Amino acid sequence: MGRVIKVISLKHFFVLSMALNVSLILRAINQDNRAPMAVQKGINAAQMTFLSFPLLSSPTAATPATQPLGQNGRERVINLDHGDPTMYEKYWKQMGDKATIVIPGWQSMSYFSDVKNLCWFLEPEFAKQIVRVHKVVGNALTEGRHIVVGTGSSQLFSAALYALAPQDASNPISVVSAAPYYSCYPLMTDSIKSGLHKWAGDAKVFNKDEPYIELVTSPNNPDGFIRHSMVNRTGGILVHDLAYYWPQYTPISSPADNDLTLFTVSKITGHAGMRIGWALVKDVEVAKKMTKFIELNTIGVSKDSQIRAAKVLEVVSDSCEQAGGSEHVESFFHFSHALMTERWRMLREAVKRSGIFSLPEFSSAHCNFFDNKLGSQPAFAWLKCDGDDVDDCESFLRRHKILTRGGKHFGVSPKYVRISMMDREETYDLFIQRLSQIRS
Amino acid sequence: MGRVIKVISLKHFFVLSMALNVSLILRAINQDNRAPMAVQKGINAAQMTFLSFPLLSSPTAATPATQPLGQNGRERVINLDHGDPTMYEKYWKQMGDKATIVIPGWQSMSYFSDVKNLCWFLEPEFAKQIVRVHKVVGNALTEGRHIVVGTGSSQLFSAALYALAPQDASNPISVVSAAPYYSCYPLMTDSIKSGLHKWAGDAKVFNKDEPYIELVTSPNNPDGFIRHSMVNRTGGILVHDLAYYWPQYTPISSPADNDLTLFTVSKITGHAGMRIGWALVKDVEVAKKMTKFIELNTIGVSKDSQIRAAKVLEVVSDSCEQAGGSEHVESFFHFSHALMTERWRMLREAVKRSGIFSLPEFSSAHCNFFDNKLGSQPAFAWLKCDGDDVDDCESFLRRHKILTRGGKHFGVSPKYVRISMMDREETYDLFIQRLSQIRS
Questions:
Q1: What span, in angstroms and rounded, lies between the C-alpha atoms of B270 and B86?
Q2: Which contacts of A114-117 are long-range, i.e. CB under 8 A and separated by 24 or more positions?
Q3: pLDDT tens string A181-213
Q4: Which of A215, B169, B258, B358 has its CA 20 to 30 A from that of A164?
């Protein structure tokens, strides 16, 4: 009996030891690959020097925004100008190895992913997980749609303009969106002075009697409101950007049923570094032209990131289906919804305390996903400096070392700024603390 | 003693069992991610239906080109139109887990890779391995250069045009390249009718007294010759595309020392599915503008693929440094050079046998990397149909179910075709077999 115990102990010892080895080997391989990462070093985007993405350089940015004071004893810069969705890291750390991917050196070498598919560079497993997550969440119809994958939804935006603009027109087609519109739309539309399309500004005042493409962002970036076409006539070509139509940001009232809808992994799961988006496209010819654009632009889309995106979406869908069961899994949207709720509560409290700012108010609506009446809690806060003495809210906040993106970039008054709600916890907490102390 | 042996056996058993488990777990995770892959199914690019990448649709393509006859008993289509570099899979299989990458779900989430770098989306480890591989191979100077990463070199090509074209000129700048030129250049230059640049054809006949950008591809795609600027005057802006300036294709005579040079992982290691390329750029302002273009186009480049590219280049450099040592490692370039040598030997023999084709002849030169006098063995064969009765070599070969890309796409006579030399062994062998049998 003593020997049996001894052998069992040895057995257990080896099993444990090997399990540990597995974990260590995985870590070693991984760290080997990723050594000098900004994230690992704790470098924050506030340290940008040349960086002008997507619009603004930040010359005052110097040190990580994790503590109120920098090494030089001066107040740290809090950069909430761009929407880097790092707040989701926490969830993925909780999930441990569930979303880990392993790719051997000899896999995914070819340009081709699925030569039978119209979009020949779309990984079949990724396509499968896109259909599944839309079904689980109920935010978009996928039946009768072609899926086109893109290097982020930015590339799909350009691909959509290319596909929808008439190729033989004497003048470029007008591209409009209701102000406040996403600040990158004008820049992306006109970046290389295309003869196919040109930016024509605010959809609400567009009145030319000619064809046009209208971009409908819903919930809207920057202000978070649900939107529909705003041009005061019919016959426009619509592109729906539904990057934020997910349960953590807004109630899911019905599945989207548009001609051309754009989504991006970045704003769902937080994996912005993958640069993966997709389009759901009704018209086969439009889908073919979008595919053609991506061929000419980048000859396809990273397979490695598509494989990873498939895994991440799979874990999200699994978490929704398993939540509440015996495995004690937290649904991804439960986690992210709770986080956004808390952040908006803190923000509204800070704004109230300061007395010089205001925020949009959203009415509640039934969310089919949560089966509950819920409010909106957008990925960006659209803050207004109310006082008559502040004309430029962006400059005003910059004096307090809070970097935001001012209203003029979105086609409206500089009294507004857009603030990212998606940064890491320490940055967000510091922001709330500083905002609460601002007086006019 | 008997007990000791028993315990040792148990110990060994568990070690072996766990080692097996590790391998199985890795495989399981991986297959889980990658289930319905075209490559795994053995589907060949010859099965394309809608596919028009990069130029030609192939309506006759139907079944894998691994056997002479398809399931219907008819001759299989051999598609060597595009340069899918799948022949390198064999090397990476030999390397086992050396180039495997593991990425946990919570890593590489941010948009940012290195906020202190001009190119803020460039992974530092990838930058390090680019510098290292150029040093090991001796094919390009990296000192005093800025590295800009792109989604393949296609995106960097567009970024270079954007950065080099005057922004305020009344007319788009002319873009030229000596014929035969890479067939995608005209399409990529004019894809969205840019007001910044326009395709102006063959550099050898360009004689307008105005600024121009000249693309110098060396070794040249399609014909494999080493090239220099061909416009008959000075003052042009040069972009060097050195995708094929690696030892398996051509002797490395000296490190490239240009203002702006493009490289791509696809043609070095065969990992086309990563969509990763890089530019070495002397002028800081040009590098900044290229970075800006990629921001507007795709807000950066897949981190996952950059991490993988870093690993693959590391294994290549390691293999060069360790080759001939006690570890019995085969240098990647030794492997690939031997493969290309054998393929060109087979091709020249088949061409000789047929009596109706001809190929370019290359003079030998000293290769600094191999320290030997060597010939060229390009990634594409530039085949000519010699007979007076064949005007269109592409159509002629298509009748024999060999898909190639005809001379007209490269700005020259249709008596020429470009044939990929980089496909899998079974496809290549079948091609040689069929070519040998063709008579006029």
A1: 6
A2: A114/B36, A114/B38, A115/B38, A115/B43, A115/B44, A115/B45, A115/B47, A115/B48, A115/B49, A115/B51, A116/B43, A116/B47, A116/B49, A117/B50
A3: 999 999 999 999 999 999 999 999 999 999 999
A4: B169
The residue length of chain A stands at 440
Per-residue burial over B294-322, b if 16 or more Cβ lie within 10 Å, else e, is bbbbbbbbbbbbbbbbbbbbbbbbbbbee
Closest CA to B162 of B205, B202, B192: B192
Query: What does the alpha-carbon distance between residue B155 and residue A437 come to, in Å, rounded to a whole number?
Result: 46
Within B16-93, strands assigned E span: 78-79
Token pair 């009415």 is found at: A363
- Please give the structure tokens belonging to residue A369: 């996903």
A389-400: pLDDT as tens digits: 999 999 999 999
Tokens representing residue B159 in the block: 């970024």
In B, which residues are within 8 Å of A159 by CB distance? none
Terminal-residue alpha carbon distance, chain B = 80
> How far is A186 from A240, CA to CA, in rounded Å?
16
Angle at B372 between CA B368 and CA B376, to 5 degrees: 85
Long-range contacts, stretch A256-260, CB < 8 angstroms, 24+ apart = A256/A139, A256/A140, A256/A141, A257/A140, A257/A141, A258/A282, A259/A283, A259/A286, A260/A160, A260/A164, A260/A286
Residue B258: which H helix or E strand, with range? Answer: none
Per-residue model confidence as pLDDT tens digits over A134-187: 999 999 999 999 999 999 999 999 999 999 999 999 999 999 999 999 999 999
Q: Which of residues 239-278 of B touch A (CB under 8 A)?
A: 266, 270-276
| Rounded mean pLDDT for each run of 10 residues along chain B, 440 residues in total | 46 48 42 32 34 35 49 83 96 96 97 97 98 98 98 98 95 97 97 95 95 97 96 89 98 98 98 98 98 98 98 98 83 98 98 95 98 98 96 97 98 98 97 91
Interchain contact, B33 vs A152, CB within 8 Å? no
Whether A302 and B298 lie within 8 Å, measured CB to CB: no
Q: How do residues A59-106 score in pLDDT, each as one tens digit? A: 233 334 445 666 666 789 999 999 999 999 999 999 999 999 999 999
Q: Are A221 and A379 in contact (CB under 8 A)?
A: yes
Neighbours of A371 (CB within 10 A): 8
Classify residue B321 by its DSSP letter. Answer: H
A315 and B184 within 8 Å at the Cβ level: the answer is no
How many A×B Cβ pairs under 8 Å? 387
Q: Position of tokens 């740290």?
A: A76
**In this structure, are residues B81 and B60 in contact, taking their beta carbons and an 8 Å threshold?**
no
- Best A8, A31, A33, A193 residue to mutate vs chain B (most B CBs within 10 Å): A33
For residue B51, the SS3 value is: coil
Say if A107 is an interface residue toward chain B (CB within 8 Å). Answer: yes
Q: What number of residues does chain B have?
A: 440
Residue A6 or B182, more confident: B182
CA distance B347 to B436: 9
Within a 13 Å sphere around the CA of B184, how many CA atoms are in the beta-carbon half? 24
Q: CA angle, corner A47, sides to A42 and A53, nearest 5?
A: 115
Rounded to whole angstroms, how far apart are CA atoms A207 and A89?
A: 45
